[in-house]
Amino acid sequence: MKTLRDILYNVGIRAVHGNTDIPVNAPAIDSRSVGPGDAFIAVKGVHTDGHQYIDKAIAQGAAAIICETLPEILLDTVTYVQADNSATASGIMAGNFYDNPSHKLQLVGVTGTNGKTTIATILFRLFSQLGYHCGLLSTVQNQIGDTVIPSTHTTPDPISLNALLARMVEEGCLYAFMEVSSHAIHQQRIAGLKFAGGIFSNITHDHLDYHKTFDEYIRVKKSFFDSLPASAFVLTNLDDKRGMVMLQNTKARKATYSLRTLADFKGKILENNLTGLIMQVGDTEVHFRLIGEFNAYNLLAVYGAAVLLGQDKATVLRALSNTQGAEGRFEYIVSAHDQIIAIVDYAHTPDALKNVLATIKNLRKGHEQVITVVGCGGDRDTAKRPVMAAVATDSSDRVIFTSDNPRSEDPDAIIREMEAGVPVHQKKRVISITDRREAIKTAVTLAGKEDIILVAGKGHEKYQEIKGVKHPFDDKQVLEEVMRLLDK
Ligand SMILES: CC(=O)N[C@H]1[C@@H](OP(=O)(O)OP(=O)(O)OC[C@H]2O[C@@H](n3ccc(=O)[nH]c3=O)[C@H](O)[C@@H]2O)O[C@H](CO)[C@@H](O)[C@@H]1O[C@H](C)C(=O)N[C@@H](C)C(=O)N[C@H](CCC(=O)O)C(=O)O
Ligand SMILES: Nc1ncnc2c1ncn2[C@@H]1O[C@H](COP(=O)(O)OP(=O)(O)OP(=O)(O)O)[C@@H](O)[C@H]1O
Ligand SMILES: N[C@H](CCC[C@H](N)C(=O)O)C(=O)O
Ligand SMILES: [Mg+2]
């Protein structure tokens, strides 16, 4: 069993009251999960402050308290540690408790507004196909080899994260691929992890509710690359305006990818249609199953990272050419009678929506209508709502505004904020239907032969979160049911 002293190794400490040579059962950041002998770390959050739950944690048996501000009354039976930063301490302590699993495998982190799940998932599939036992931490699911572990976050809290990495090490994984969200960087969920590489996909409008300004969002993303060690690689997208900014202060080996200019990993799209992409990568022409220019970027990022991890270029391209994308990302079905193409995609930012609709435009032979069903999540960036609405309306013939995950908000109020983004001359393209099933049904009703329907925003999600309750909902399943029902 580890002692408190063991797991405090490398933690910035201001003061200690009590004995650190005591056994610790587990570190915990949530008082509700504290058990006898645990070390409770009081973290200041967005909604509340973990310091308020110190008494509760002690009542539940906590043997040690790690906090930024010491309580006024200190008990003799408990060890108190005043840390510089409790959130950072929780990452480092979780690493120490689980024997720093990130040091025992090659951990690659992917950050950026869009493409993280796609890049991490394809890397996981590629390396698995190349014969390595691998781990994956992603929005859709976590995975250790063939074992799927449901995910609650894009990047888990530091304790779950290190526990998962430790399981990966125990089960013999050599590589782990993970998404690094900006929330996770900011909340120090990745503190203490050792990365073998970091990948930057792109940065566009999202999460301004949390980061407040775009500059701050950029700064937070960049801090991930600033923290990488010299032994790691950093791979950046040269075609993104902030691609080079991410490299400014990193000690890691720098590499670039691009579709437009000279780069370490340069691609050129030769064909882009519903059967996939044909891309020239270096000197090789390769067919990929993934669709759309944005996926050409994701594939280049995967290819570059695999090569930087020491894999053979030709072998990687051969394996990649057969790989499929992540669930709920540009997945399509074609209706039996009218050959309506219905696409389910996780576009939940203005840029993602713009890219997906540009890809759809490219697939059109000319006469087909594009009908988009889209909503915006509640308790998230409100500034993106009118922008997403404008993008959807501008690039579609008909648009149906509906609910995404309203969470604690009034779904109709979210839709009103979306409607405000539509220019007057395009208003007649738009209908608003709050019920997502009805919205999808209306899109299918409106669709004629060979028309294209885009159902955006929820991708792989199997639920709709309304007022704290997750109701089962699956865009793809609803589309299939409605198409059958309407005999399309
Ligand atoms: C806004 C946000 O990121 N919140 C995360 C944050 O919670 P918080 O700051 O609200 O925590 P809080 O409720 O104020 O509590 C503060 C501290 O007191 C503790 N506490 C609280 C209550 C109690 O009774 N006892 C107790 O000890 C809490 O465990 C916490 O340590 O820390 C929690 C523990 O790590 C996270 O679960 C929680 O994620 C919430 C649920 C969430 O929805 N986060 C989303 C926005 C998110 O993180 N998304 C990104 C992806 C975004 C993207 O990819 O586009 C992600 O990585 O998933
Ligand atoms: N490289 C890219 N550039 C721009 N848009 C992309 C890119 N890759 C994917 N997208 C769009 O963004 C959506 C989300 O993709 P993905 O799930 O891979 O991103 P993510 O960064 O993991 O998102 P999240 O922040 O929710 O975790 C896709 O469904 C697609 O519409
Ligand atoms: N990881 C993103 C996913 C958004 C998906 C969309 N369906 C929504 O609920 O807003 C977030 O937490 O902001
Ligand atoms: Mg993701």
Automatic annotation (TrEMBL):
Q: Which residues carry this modification: N6-carboxylysine?
A: K221
Which residues are in coiled coils?
A: none
- Residue ranges constituting the Mur ligase C-terminal domain according to the UniProt record: 328-459
Span-the-membrane segments of this chain are none
The entry's localization annotation reads: Cytoplasm
**Chain positions of motif Meso-diaminopimelate recognition motif:** 404-407
User: Catalyzes what?
Assistant: UDP-N-acetyl-alpha-D-muramoyl-L-alanyl-D-glutamate + meso-2,6-diaminopimelate + ATP = UDP-N-acetyl-alpha-D-muramoyl-L-alanyl-gamma-D-glutamyl-meso-2,6-diaminopimelate + ADP + phosphate + H(+)
Using the record's annotation, list all stretches that form the Mur ligase central domain: 110-306
Query: Which one GO biological process term can you cite for this protein?
Result: cell division
Q: From the Swiss-Prot or TrEMBL record, give the protein name.
A: UDP-N-acetylmuramoyl-L-alanyl-D-glutamate--2,6-diaminopimelate ligase
For this protein, what is the EC number? Answer: 6.3.2.13
- Residues annotated as binding UDP-N-acetyl-alpha-D-muramoyl-L-alanyl-D-glutamate are S31, T154, T155, S181, Q187, R189
> What does the record give as cofactor?
Mg(2+)
